[in-house]
Write a structure and sequence with these properties.
- This protein is of the alpha/beta class.
- The protein has nine helices and 16 strands.
- It has one domain: Metallo-beta-lactamase, Chain A.
- Helix 8 packs across helix 9.
């Protein structure tokens, strides 16, 4: 399997130049609030956070919801390596049916690589004429310029490029974009994925066509809740918001063992960077799963030769403040009150496939749809 995977990658790199993008103007920068702000009332519904693997998270409050990334299709390893890939409408519709809200307002995409930005444009098309039970909407897609270009070329009617520290109100949510490096990127494959995804890049495409040089984290605010989503494992020049401002931090752990300088302690340095505040926030790893496996198959960690996630986690879990970490499996949901103090969500109960790693207290399985 490993040999076939790498042969496929080589083939896709050779064929990338044969798949040019159409000429089209780049998307414009986002211009402030996406919709008129609607502050949550004192009796506002709770915030439900649904985890769909990689760094895809649905934030739902009553009928309203937003997505971070929205990568649902999860093409298999051979398809990804050797063929053009694109969104799977049936899978996307199924995942939308598993989200508790009914009105998707916006999708905030970290960057244009396929495991983040592949599905955003198609999602907007589907929710315009949604499956039964959902309300028709015309959601925004916000992200890097490359991610917005990709979404607009593939169905999004409203797409814009975020700016660093730009804050965007949409429904009852406020979302702040924070520019952060993509992460350790020493491998030749990472170098191949650096660049810009131009306007007009149609899907399906080879995964190496979906390039980016920028990456965003997002601080999501709803009522008294402050949730930071840090999809990729880069270290910004400025530290991320401390847990005093972000009570829960979803932090990416993918690729931590590929330090650009060859330093084996990069995972520990990364953890020190994102956990440097002495306050009591909770940290939930994301982007730890094998995203070429369907969610219903309960994907575990990726093959170690591609990304040795357990090795990175072992380093992190020996560092100070690691007792704040808890894990969610894909297709799991947390429910948090809109207002008031937030009770601890850490637990010592292990769950497979994470073996002895602690699960987040209150995490509930998402019913099949």
């Amino acid at each position: 399997m490993a040999a076939r995977w790498w042969i496929g990658i080589v083939a896709s790199l050779a064929l990338t130049a044969c798949h040019p993008a159409a000429t089209r103007a780049a998307v414009a920068p986002c211009a402030g609030d996406l919709d008129p702000p609607r502050l949550p009332a004192a009796d506002a519904p709770p915030l439900k956070i649904s985890y769909f693997g990689v760094s895809t998270l649905a934030f739902s409050a009553g009928d309203d919801e937003i997505l971070i990334d929205g990568f649902f299709s999860r093409p298999g390893p051979i398809s990804t390596a050797a063929t053009r890939i694109g969104p799977r409408e049936d899978v996307i519709a199924r995942r939308l049916g598993q989200m508790p809200g009914r009105r998707l307002l916006a999708i905030f995409v970290a960057h244009a690589h396929h495991d983040h930005g592949l599905d955003a444009g198609k999602i907007t098309e589907i929710v315009e004429h949604p499956p039964s039970g959902r309300l028709p909407t015309d959601p925004w897609v916000v992200g890097t310029r490359s991610a917005a270009n990709l979404a607009e070329a593939n169905g999004a009617k409203r797409a814009c490029a975020a700016t660093n520290k730009g804050t965007y109100a949409v429904g009852p949510f406020r979302v702040t974009a924070l520019e952060v490096p993509h992460g350790p990127a020493s491998s030749w494959l990472e170098r191949k994925l650096r660049g810009e995804t131009p306007p007009g890049r149609k899907l399906p495409a080879y995964f190496t066509d979906l390039k980016d040089t920028t990456n965003f984290s997002y601080l999501v605010e709803y009522g008294d809740r402050r949730i930071l989503v840090y999809p990729s494992a880069g270290m910004a020049k400025d530290p991320p918001p401390p847990p005093a401002a972000a009570e829960v931090v979803f932090f990416g752990v993918g690729g931590l063992t590929a330090d650009p300088d060859g330093h084996p302690d990069y995972p520990a340095r990364y953890w020190a960077h994102i956990s440097q505040s002495p306050t009591t926030g909770t940290y939930v790893p994301v982007h730890w799963d094998n995203f070429s496996i369907k969610l219903e198959s309960r994907p575990g960690f990726p093959p170690a030769f591609l990304d040795d996630v357990p090795k990175a986690l072992d380093q992190i879990e020996k560092r100070p403040r690691a007792d704040r970490i808890c894990f969610l499996e894909p297709l799991t949901r947390l429910t948090l009150p809109a207002h008031g103090a937030l009770a601890p969500i850490r637990s010592g109960s292990p769950r497979t496939p994470l073996k002895t790693r602690p699960a987040c207290q209150g995490g509930e399985g998402i019913a099949s749809s």
